[in-house]
Write a structure and sequence with these properties.
Shape of chain A: elongated
Strand order of the largest sheet of chain A: 2-5-8-1-9
Largest interface: A-B, 52 and 45 residues
Order of helices and strands of chain B: HHHHHHHHEEHEEHEEHHHEHEHEHH
Oligomer: heterodimer
CATH architecture of the largest domain in chain A: 3-Layer(aba) Sandwich
Helix content of chain B: 40-55%
Number of helices of chain A: 15
CATH class of the largest domain in chain B: Alpha Beta
Strand order of the largest sheet of chain B: 6-5-4-7-8-9
Structural class of chain A: alpha/beta
Helix content of chain A: 40-55%
Structural class of chain B: alpha/beta
Order of helices and strands of chain A: HHEHEHEHHEHEHEEEHEHHHHHH
Distance between the termini of chain B: 80 Å
Shape of chain B: globular
Chain lengths: ~300, ~425
């Protein structure tokens, strides 16, 4: 097994370039944060509203660094057996039945063999540690705010030494720290003890220029005029008092839908018909549809 | 070149955090200037003084980082220090302000000044308070609190009737009741968490069963069991403190303090025309005085209650952050609403979908002959789970007993009936 250590771009500019080659437009501040996380070998903590492209950062970073991405999706009740490892009990039981049918049964040796890697189910954190034997992967710990405090406590320990102890097998250590990206939608406050060990970055909704570039890059079928109008409309809509503002992926879906409907310009009817792609909440749709759509459209076309 | 001085003296101060600057190429390993290190350390102290929690290890990282990033670009320096020294979104605005002030005043002639001007530090602290009323300085209340502590002895002999309406309380009775309430025990109903717990009853714990018995060659001897761990439900209290609730608002705040002290997760908000979070304030001993003053200020602004708008504010701004784990919601209001009843109904319906129990406490419900006829109350009735009085100590005791029974939300209760 030949080890190829992770090649970190030599400067912020180089990193920005590498991300751009993966079609990701990173603002300077975000690029600086990512660069620092790589150099300091600290986790990158990305916080922001849902739909601003936090998860995308990890995916693109893995591609730009030419390494694998290992993802751990958090949820309430997430525990070691789902995050780190678990023994494959059904297989172990089956193995026992098979051993039992064999005549010359050495129980002690058989039991010993039951706890080998063959029967181990590796979950994301353990896989990330093992992966470092070839090359440090990007470990994405997605939506940490959904996990409970108990898991946060475990994670704190894991992030400080990147090792996993399995009583039956021993301790497995990372050859080099994985690149850790933690995201949070801020549905609750994540504990300071965890956050202050990280390089912190708040990701806002993109400004007009950035979102316009994203739309033209990801929805090539959209004309320049449509892309501008779509972007301007969404940007204006985000300033409205809504329960859930539209994220970037909603903008892209909407643009793609308009292209599919052969639209080249926005008008009130088509917006009213397709509003459900932008807003996912009935109260929001009801409050915007009609007059407010007209007012925003007037500003967009002005 | 490359010193902080040149950064500060080139462009004028800008309020825009992301100034568009050309990024000059730089050598990654510029030698450190002693001035730079001391300035970064100083800046860390300024941030700390302004109330940002700066971790010491991050200061070391920051000094290291400037060597890699280079410091010719002010935007890069800002990004570097912000990524390492700030770890809360609410501190970002403060950081940007401090950064602008610090690196504006430090042109090369001032670089060796021993201390960052005190006047500017004070300015930062003041602005922070202006933007966040819940962080008012509690120490200014010290003398008032001391006076109250002195007077408390006089109140302690007062007998409080448990059935007397709060509105008819004398000042002495109010104070005695307040102290009584702080001692009341609140145990909100429990919810089942998603986390497992080893137990003597419940489902068979397969992973543990297999693990324990594999050692014996697969013979099933012990049957370990597991249940979902249980935790108390969080409480969210939304209290109307508008003029019409004046006679009750003081007791309400005591009620909120008592709740916060005895239950684990309590969030409190007060509203008249707009909503303010007071969770932290009601949890400290003298906090209620600060809130009382805030409530008086609210009254001075006038304008009555707009319950629907206040709830909308809660639903859009706070619900995502405090409505976890099926909370019990307490709305305390007399239902005198100057806003749109349709909006109120809509926001209540929304709130109800996201909680385990929506309880409306109305102090007027305790008075004989009261009918919930106000438009607001009429609109609210069909969207709430319980409509209960809150006008005397007896009614609060009833509430405490009721809360304890809410274990599985409204669905669980329906099963019993």
């Amino acid at each position: 097994m030949s080890r190829a250590p992770l090649a970190i771009p030599p400067s912020v500019d180089a990193l920005q370039g590498a991300l751009a080659r993966e079609h990701y437009i990173a603002e300077r501040a975000l690029a600086v944060s990512i660069y620092l996380a790589l150099r300091l070998k600290r986790p990158l903590f990305l916080e922001g509203e849902a739909g601003v492209g936090k998860t995308e950062v990890a995916k693109v970073l893995a591609a730009a660094l030419n390494t694998s991405l290992i993802r751990l999706q958090c949820y309430e009740g997430l525990d070691v057996s789902q995050a780190v490892y678990e023994w494959n009990y059904p297989r172990q039981l089956l193995e026992i039945r098979m051993i039992e049918t064999a005549t010359d049964l050495d129980r002690a040796a058989a039991t010993h063999e039951l706890f080998t890697e063959t029967f181990l189910i590796k979950r994301p954190l353990l896989r990330a540690v093992e992966q470092t034997r070839e090359r440090a992967p990007v470990l994405l710990i997605d939506e940490i705010d959904r996990a409970d405090e108990e898991f946060e406590g475990y994670l704190l320990e894991f992030l400080s030494d990147f090792q996993v102890t399995i009583p039956e097998l021993g301790t497995i250590r990372a050859d080099e720290p994985p690149v850790v990206v933690i995201t949070s939608n801020r549905t609750r406050e994540v504990h300071d003890a965890l956050k202050r060990r990280c390089v912190y970055s708040w990701i806002p909704y993109p400004d007009f220029d950035k979102e316009y570039r994203i739309v033209t890059a990801k929805v090539p079928g959209a004309s320049e005029r449509l892309a501008r109008q779509v972007t301007a409309f969404v940007q204006d809509l985000r300033t409205a008092d809504l329960y859930k503002a539209a994220g970037i992926s909603e903008t892209l879906d909407w643009a793609a839908a308009l292209v599919a409907l052969d639209r080249d310009v926005l008008d009130r009817d088509v917006i009213d018909e397709t509003l459900g792609i932008l807003l996912k909440n009935q109260e929001d749709i009801d409050s915007v549809r009609g007059e407010r759509v007209g007012a925003i459209l007037a500003r967009v076309l002005a | 070149m490359g010193s902080l001085g040149s950064l500060g003296s080139t462009g004028s101060r800008s309020n825009e955090p992301h100034e568009p600057e050309p990024h000059e190429p730089h050598e990654p390993n510029e030698p450190h200037e002693p001035k730079l290190i001391s300035n970064i350390l100083l800046f860390g102290r300024v941030l700390r003084a302004a109330g940002v929690h700066v971790h010491r290890e991050r200061m070391v990282d920051a000094i290291q980082a400037t060597e890699w990033i280079g410091i010719r670009s002010r935007a890069d320096l800002r990004a570097t220090l912000s990524a390492l020294l700030v770890h809360r979104h609410e501190d970002l605005a403060l950081f940007n302000e401090a950064f602008d002030l610090f690196f504006r005043s430090h042109d090369s002639s001032e670089l060796d000044l021993p201390l960052f001007s005190l006047g500017e530090r004070a300015r930062i602290a003041m602005r922070r308070n202006a933007g966040a009323p819940q962080r008012l300085d509690l120490e200014s209340e010290a003398s008032e609190a001391a006076a109250a502590a002195f007077a408390i002895g006089a109140y302690s002999t007062v007998e409080v009737s448990r059935t007397k309406d709060f509105a008819d309380f004398t000042a002495a009775e109010l104070e005695a009741a307040r102290r009584l309430m702080l001692r009341m025990r609140w145990q909100p109903g429990i919810r089942r968490t998603r986390r497992w717990q080893h137990a003597s009853r419940g489902d068979i714990d397969m992973p543990r069963l297999l693990r324990a018995n594999l050692m014996r060659g697969g013979e099933l001897i012990d049957l370990p069991r597991r249940i979902r761990r249980e935790a108390p439900r969080p409480i969210v209290m939304l209290a109307d403190v508008s003029g019409s609730m004046d006679r009750y608002s003081r007791m309400l705040l005591a009620f909120a303090s008592g709740l916060t002290r005895s239950a684990r997760q309590v969030e409190s908000f007060v509203f008249a025309t707009r909503l303010t979070r007071v969770s932290r304030l009601v949890s400290v001993a003298t906090g209620h005085r600060v809130v009382s003053r805030m409530v008086r200020d609210l009254h001075d602004w006038g304008g009555g209650t707009r319950i629907g708008e206040a709830l909308r504010g809660f639903n859009t701004t706070w619900a995502r952050r405090v409505m976890r784990h099926g909370p019990v919601i307490l709305i305390v209001s007399d239902g005198w609403d100057r806003g749109d009843p349709k909006l109120l109904a809509q926001e209540l319906a929304r709130l109800r979908r996201r909680c385990s129990r929506l309880i409306w406490l109305n102090p007027l419900l305790g008075s004989a002959g009261y009918e919930p006829l106000t438009r607001g109350m009429q609109a609210a009735l069909e969207h709430i789970d319980d409509f209960m009085p809150a006008h005397n100590l007896r009614s609060l005791e009833d509430l405490a007993a009721h809360l304890q029974r809410i274990d599985h939300g409204r669905h669980g209760d329906q099963r019993h009936t």
